[in-house]
UniProtKB/TrEMBL annotation:
Belongs to the isochorismate synthase family. SUPFAM superfamilies: ADC synthase. Residues 104-348 form the Chorismate-utilising enzyme C-terminal domain. GO terms for molecular function: isochorismate synthase activity. It holds the Pfam family Chorismate_bind. This is isochorismate synthase. Its EC number is 5.4.4.2. Keywords: Isomerase. It catalyses: chorismate = isochorismate. Gene3D superfamilies: Anthranilate synthase. NCBIfam families: isochor_syn.
Length: 356
């Protein structure tokens, strides 16, 4: 199958409401494909239920009726063999019908609101995100954009998926939530961002504090299962046009610890929500002003008897019939300022905007 035929087939699968995902692991050359051939996609409302499931997981930032955890059963694992379903009335997923972009002044006001609990000590960190929508070009191809992202972002996890419940999402993310097989597992703390990437990068106190908070959280969550990981970092890593601080945590999973329970304890990490976990989650839910849906959730193949690779859904795009919606966020601590955080989100938005 030629490249052009591949992305045309992906576009046809989307148009006919197929349940599928195509993804490329970091630094690999070829993508992997999974598709559910028939039946309703499995969905549930508790991450722990992932324990006994195998397939491509799509989990939201916040689980609710409209955004359950989804899992695509891998009936077909070769795009060449995928049969385009005959749908009479294909759905439109989560199409947005209006542009609700936040401007700089509104962002400044929202920043001040999110800074208040940092200033009074209620929160140690909170992530403020925003979306940016624009009209979809008539010639836009999700399939072609996937292959463009795969070529452009070789060090990231690149993905495209569609289901009738989630709609269509395309992204390139650098952040592992959990990967491994058997009893050998790996997670990372990824926080701190620089977009003026130089050959030699130095990190200020704000970014170092962000990284420390995320690493401490992960260590605390793992210790609740009596897990003592091997730690490597922090060190600088590059993703797209950005640089981040990263710490690797490798560990052995005790036999009495369920994978679903471990994933539930990790998500959402402070890299996408904040600290303390429940307070930050509640504050974002109350004041951020829009529904993140599957942005800052997690995605990827899960197979307890083989390889599991779950990634946080960052640097992503929600693809509707008439609109494309990009997402970006930044972590706020007491040393943050509105100007720098706005610039950071602008740079992050460019990751997906550049392949539209």
């Amino acid at each position: 199958m030629t490249l052009k035929n591949s992305y045309q087939k992906l576009d046809s699968l989307i148009e006919n409401d197929a349940c599928f995902a195509i993804y490329r692991l970091p630094n690999e050359s070829s993508p992997k494909f999974v598709m559910q051939n028939n039946g309703e996609i499995k969905h549930f409302y508790d991450i722990e239920e992932l324990e006994e499931n195998r397939g491509f997981v799509i989990a939201p930032y916040k689980i609710k009726k409209e955004t359950p955890v989804l899992i695509i059963r891998p009936d077909c694992t070769n795009l060449n063999d995928a049969v385009i379903p005959d749908r009479q009335n294909p759905g439109v997923g989560s199409e947005r019908f209006k542009l609700d972009n936040i401007n700089r002044n509104d962002y400044n006001r929202l920043f001040d609101l999110f800074y208040m609990p940092l200033k009074d000590g209620t929160l140690k960190k909170v992530v403020l995100s925003r979306s940016k929508s624009f009209a979809r070009n008539r010639n836009f191809s999700p399939g072609a954009s996937f292959y463009k992202a795969m070529e452009k972002y070789k060090n990231s996890y690149v993905f495209l998926f569609h289901t009738p419940i989630s709609g269509t999402w395309l992204g390139s993310t650098p952040e592992i939530l959990l990967s491994g097989r058997g009893n050998s597992w790996h997670t990372v703390a990824l926080a701190g961002t620089q977009y003026q990437v130089k050959e030699k990068i130095s990190w200020d106190d704000k970014n170092l504090r962000e990284q420390h908070l995320v690493t401490s959280y992960l260590l605390n969550q793992l210790s609740s299962f009596n897990i003592k990981p091997e730690i490597n970092g922090p060190y600088t890593t590059k993703a797209a046009n950005l640089a981040h601080l990263k710490t690797d945590l490798d560990f052995t999973l005790p036999e009495n610890v369920g994978l679903g329970k471990l994933i539930k304890s990790l998500h959402p990490t402070p890299a996408v929500s904040g600290l303390p976990k429940e307070e930050a989650f509640g504050y974002i839910d109350m004041y951020e002003g829009y529904d993140r849906r599957y942005y800052t959730g997690f995605i990827g193949m899960m197979n307890k008897s083989s390889d599991t690779n779950l990634y946080v859904n960052l640097r992503c795009m929600e693809i509707g019939k008439s609109l494309l919606t990009l997402f970006a966020g930044s972590g706020l601590v007491t040393s943050s300022n509105s100007r720098d955080e706005w610039k950071e989100t602008e740079q992050k938005l460019k990751t997906m905007a550049s392949i539209c």
